[in-house]
From TrEMBL:
It comes from Stieleria maiorica. PANTHER family: ABC TRANSPORTER SUBSTRATE-BINDING PROTEIN, PERIPLASMIC BINDING COMPONENT OF ABC TRANSPORTER. Residues 486-670 form the Solute-binding protein family domain. SUPFAM superfamilies: Periplasmic binding protein-like II. It holds the Pfam family SBP_bac_5. This is Bacterial extracellular solute-binding protein, family 5 Middle. One of its GO terms (biological process) is peptide transport. Residues 1-32 form the signal peptide.
Amino acid sequence: MKFPFQFNPTATGFALALIALIGSALHAPASAQTLTYAESGKPEDSGLGLLQEAPHDIIYFTDSSGGGWAKVQLLPIRDMPATTRGSLRFSILGIELDEFVAKWTDIERIDFWEKRLERETASRIANGDFVGAYPFLSILIRDYPRRPGLKTLRSEFLWRNAIQRASGSQRAESLAMLEELHRYDPQYNQAQVLKAISLTTGSLMQSLIDEGDLDNAQQLLARLKEDYGRFDLPAIAKWEGEFLRMATEKRNEAIEAVKRKDFRSARKLARESLYLKPDIDGGRDLVKKIDEAYPLVSVGVLQAARIYDPVRMDNWAARRAGRLLYRNLFEIQGAAPEGGEYDFLFGSAETTPDRQVLELTLETAKLPNPLNRIEVDFLADQLALRAMPESETYFSPWAASVTGIGIDGPQRIECVLRRPHVLPTCLLQINVDASWFGGEKGGATGDYFTDVVNDEETRFMLTEDARRASGDSGKPREIVEVRCNTGSESVSKLLSGEIDVLDQLFPADAIKLKERRDVKVVEYPLPTIHMLVPCSDHQFVADKNFRRALLYGINREDILQGELLENHASPGCRVLSGPFPAGLSQDDPLGYAYDTTILPRRFEPSLAQLLVALSKNLKIAEAKRKDEPEPKLRAVRLAFPADNLSRVACEAIRSQWELIGLDVELVELPIGRTYPDPDTADLVYVSCAIWEPIIDARRLLGPRGLARSEDQLIGLGLRRLEEARNWKEVRDRLLVLHSISHHELPVLPLWQMVDSFAYRNNLVGMGSNIVSLYQNAGNWRLEF
């Protein structure tokens, strides 16, 4: 067999090995390996398989020299030489250690690697195979950016691909490619490209308007005006006029509503008009006029309130809305290095230096109606009732702390404590209702009362007393909570101006909104603790081995980071090993109850299955000893509040529990409810406000607490905590309680979340470091 090239003996000493290798390769079946040379024909078309091959050139030999071809390593030259004198040295793929030589007169042509890539790219573009063309084009752009004709090839790819996508109703993708083409090569078919941009924009804008996505439609139009304003695109002029028409209609409807004194409708219409066309004539003055006549603030909520309790630890909505209706005897204002900061509703409070007397001084002259009608003897009675087991307001930590309550003058009460207490004010977070002032039991004492409550919204109206006290200060006459089904819906309403405040954000939405100039995003200073709380007599859930199995069967890190945070970094959000907050940073004093040396249990499904089996075997053995029927592991019913975050988390938990062989039923609670009725669920997903572990430990873990734990070790830990005399003892005993909770699992800790809220810049008076959204609602004002 004769080849038109020769082995170069000066290149290597392996001539005999080469001859053997060539012989074995030529006699091997074609399917055994890919040929890299042959004495006739041409190599097979590799198609997309070319991407799997090492870069190479192909030398074709003349018929007079014997013909054939060879795939060779990339040659130092990248085009055929002008003269054919001399010889060419090369290495064949597969036998790169050896060098070969061929005369230029024996070489018919060379198919260079980049030219093959160009042919493949152009052929696939012509055939509409843009998916197949893309990887070839990418290699050319990366490795041969200065190739003549590459700019045209890339422009052809973008142009033809954009046309194909537009015909397939992929308008957004088509517009992106057309704009990329215009940026990359402004002179390429400029008239046709700009026409296509205009037509695609018109179609996309119509689609966004039909879907009600006005925010994206406006952003798109604003960007196109900035980028293509000098080209007078017909679509820009058309949609500018369309937005002006829609805004004018809304403005005129708002004016008519003002004449009818229908300020609610007028407010909504005027804001929609201004949103559609921010520079519409008289738009801002109209909104200002309406807000001055009838101040109203609209708040978007993911969890609607149906009960109102500003100190309810397991119900976000109840805490939020309760602050509008009710005041507390002592109200938390924020976190401090040594526990929370509390304000006494009726005046001032001081603890003696020995921490054994709490002195309360009434300052009724400074209080609004009806708070100024409080009587010192009535207040003393309420403090005493809190220490009596038969009372509705009984709180055992207060009963264990106080030994005497006395009236020292017409405006002064002294509470004598059994032992020094680090923060006695935190024990007196008592709801103050209208019955304290001769009114109806449960009646509101805040500045607002509920007016309209339905599935879509809840209206809180300013009381007559608060209205007279505020005069014409601009204090909101109404605060309207608008229920939003999803985070994206709530964000859309905030951006459109339909709502002024958003009370709770998904972390990913918070990051996006921080980029907006018209919106401010603020983090709440105190995190929420998410956990699963047992709430039935399910005999397996009552077994701590089974509860351990449940915890080992949840990939908490994956759910938190992937499902809830959407893989965005959110400082302070973390998986927990116990029921107390870990603080927002390593040295955060808020984490005084959290033992960082106790690591959260890892996700170990095999161990979870083993513990489930152990729990079953122990239950069966116990039933046999008692001669009782063998227990059956029925489905675990997991309840969750009717909000999107809880639903996402519980669906992920269910899928992971099912992987370890458990039957799981999800139970969605009614709107506004966070705890199930008896015998309707076995565990409930709870977002808890553990803001003061000194007292919240019992409110969560005690026999009358959320978890209703009867565990003796838990009980002992709570009692020792309440006997602590200083902050060191408080911290040490809370760390012990953390350790006990980690092992006994009265609740299943999941993760800590740092929540945030957002509001439009025209709302002022929100305040800073507020622990509850409506903490400063009396100072809210709308400005333009």
